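Tutorial handout. Part one gives the primary structure; part two gives the three-dimensional structure as tokens.
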Amino acid sequence: MSDILEKGISLRGVTKTYGSTVALAQLDLDLCPGEVLGVAGPNGAGKSTLVRMIAGEERPTLGELTFDGRPWSPSVEWQAVAVVHQEPQLFPNLTVAENVMVGREGTGSRRPRLGSADAAVMEALGIGHLKNKLLEDCSLATQQRTEIARAVARDSKVFLFDEPNSALTAEESDELFREIRKLAETGRIVVLVTHRLEDLVAHCNRVAVVRDGRVRTILEGDALTEEGLARQLVVDSTMTDAADSVAERKRDPDAPPVFTARGWTLPGVFAGIDLDGPPNEIIALMGVEGSGARELLRSLAGLDRCSGRLTIGSLSGMEAVDRYTAYVPATRQFSLYSNYSVGENLLVRLGRPEIAGMAFALKKRQMKTLAESAVQRFMVKTETTTQPIRSLSGGNQQKVAIAQALNCSPKLLLLEEPTRGVDIHSKSEIYRLLQTYVEEGNTVLMFCTEVLEIYEAADRVHVVSEGRLSPALSIADYDHVEQLATDITRLEGEQRSGAVAG
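Part two.
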């Protein structure tokens, strides 16, 4: 195998379907040796499928993928592509050197010995002195360097980095990107997939913007800016009518807040957060992974122990959290019980008085009535409440996950990426559920990474960056989602600059 790919990788008309779901649609893209190609796009745009396609983990339903001018063959080129994951896929019980040599153990009883070429690669990546250290005792930055070293040592020609620095410090991130640039300078192909617009602008030669399974545009040169990327990620997007109903929702400016957080602090993540949640409002927190936004929402659900004061309704602290909040994580599997029926999942958060009598005997007739009522109230598409939850579509499963949380009548609903991976119709119905809920005097706080979702569903948004909370942006002040995307990008930059100055 030659040291570099002379012709690179080409995708032409690549389509990938899973049943009726179209993940990639007539996608065209060239990956050139010696460059860092960025890939940006909203959740569900097809980025993950594209990465798996390049890595040889998926085959196109239609279209052509060529590798250095010849048809792609995973059985031939399996060592040529390395995926460097957000969380390294390594063996913590082995040493750094042993991880580098994984896959070359041979069949003998003796362990392989570190060769001079391997040692040179490790030295070049700054981990040579750690060769005998157990990986579990190393930092995440060292683990990622080890994954890179293993790929380089096996003569990989293509490196796919998937959100590689979300858990790294600023200094560790700088070191990682220096290594990424070195890989490109040796003629290798490097692909960087990330939500961090500043990283795409600072470290990529070109950035492909993927939406709806297609490469919509490629930005490079003077056109490659954070503002330009932000606009491209939302332009021509299909929007629901949720934004109009946000403007029509009535609010009492003198009503006491549903919740207040004062001096809310999680050491090393965020500090001194002051946040109010008025009734009848959907509030969004936006930030990339590692910004503190997701952790802030989870902390209000009681998942992290914070200092400061939290008040919800008339209660404070964990008593308020237990009584008045409901939390729905981003991953449906963490909310739903796959071996339960639709009805059982809808009722799973209800307390004993509603579904059980003496000696904890279940009130089956009452449970059936409650489940059928919930199916109608929350617009769940199902033939019967007794069919398995896993038989529903992704959008209807997500409605059940949110419905089971609303069923216990919280004052504060905490959501992570509430419509990730659902179709447009289900997304619209979920937004209507949330609007109905807040119109009853409650509050929704949701963590989002997509500007379009914020524009469609929220009343206001706070940007979180470097553990700092920005002033709120009122969605009603924006006539176009592109304007909102530009201001969110500006706030993120100001937050980063403030953290550096501080």
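Part three, for discussion. The radius of gyration is 25 Å. The chain has two domains: 9-234, 242-336+395-501.
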